[in-house]
Amino acid sequence: MITSIEQSGTGPTAETERGQAGGTGLLLVVSGPSAVGKDTVLDALLARPDLPRPVQKCVTTTTRPPRPKDGGRGMEEDGVDYHFVSPARFNAMVAQDELLEYAEYADNYYGTPRAWVAERRLRGIDVILKIEVQGGLIVQEKAPDAVLVFLQPPSLEELERRLRHRRTDSDDQIAKRLLHARKEMAQRPHYDYAVTNDSVEDAVDAIRAVLRAEHCRIHNGASNA
Asked: Is 124 inside a domain boundary?
C-alpha cells in the first residue's frame, strides 16, 4: 500500500504557473498498476519520430534494488530505468528539498528530482513522470498544469496473467499487487485521461494524441500557436 510521507516545497513554481502558453514543456504524469506495461509503452512512445515536441522521461530515484524489466528485457539499469540510491542518500535528498514529490510503496521509497524536471520544461521539452498514483496526485497539487494519464489493463484477469508471466513475485505478493491495483484503479476519476494497454501500439497512439491535444489547448486565454 502506498503511504504518502511529508512533502517538501510550498506549491507550484513560477515556471509551472506560466503553463504551456509561455513555451514551457508539458508535464505528463503516467501511472498504472504494476505489470500494466508502463515501461514498454513509454519506451515505444519515446522511439516515435512524430511527437509534437521533444520528450524525455524523468528517471525516478528509488531505494529499491534493480529487478528484471517487463517482458524479460534484462535487468533495470542505474540512471536509465531508475536512480538506485541507499535509504540514507534518499533521506538526504528529502532534507535538501531535491524532490518534487516522494512516497513509500511496498517498503521502498520513490521520488522525482525537482531541478531536473524544471530545467527540461523551461527548455520547452515535454517531461514524462512514470510514478505511482499517490505521487501523481501530489504532483497535480503542486503543478496544476500537469496532465495525468492512467494506464490501465484490459481486465484484472489479464493483469494477473502478466504478473505471473514476469515470474518475479510469489503468489502472496501477486495477491497483494492485485489488491493494490484495485485501489489504484479506483483513483482513475482524479486523472485526466485513461488509456487501456491492450495493444502497445494503440496505447502509444493514444498517449501521442494526448500530447498533441494538450499542445493545442488554450491556457489562460492565450493560444499556443
From this structure: yes
> For position 53, which CATH number holds?
3.40.50.300
Q: Are 68 and 168 in contact (CB under 8 A)?
A: yes
Q: Which residues contact 196 (CB under 8 A, 6 or more apart)?
A: 152, 153, 154, 202, 203
* 127 DSSP β-pair partners: 27, 56
Q: What is the pLDDT of residues 17-34, one digit of tens each?
A: 334 444 789 999 999 998
Residue 123 neighbours by CB distance under 10 Å = 13
For residue 147, give every residue at least 6 positions away whose Cβ sits within 8 Å of its Cβ, in sequence order, or none. 26, 27, 28, 29, 192, 193, 210, 214
- Tens-place pLDDT, residues 126-173: 999 999 898 899 999 888 999 999 999 999 999 889 888 887 778 898
Range(s) of the domain holding residue 184:
3-216
Rounded-to-integer distance, Cα 189 and Cα 22, Å = 28
Long-range Cβ contacts of 46-49 (<8 Å, 24+ apart): 48/204, 48/208
Grid cell of 140 as nine digits: 497535480
**Domain-embedded: residue 224:** no
* Of the candidates 138, 202, 125, 156, the residue with the CA atom closest to the CA atom of residue 33: 156
Alpha-carbon distance 28 to 18, whole Å?
16
3-state class of 201 per DSSP? Answer: helix
Identity of residue 32: G
Tell me the whole-structure pTM to 2 decimals: 0.76
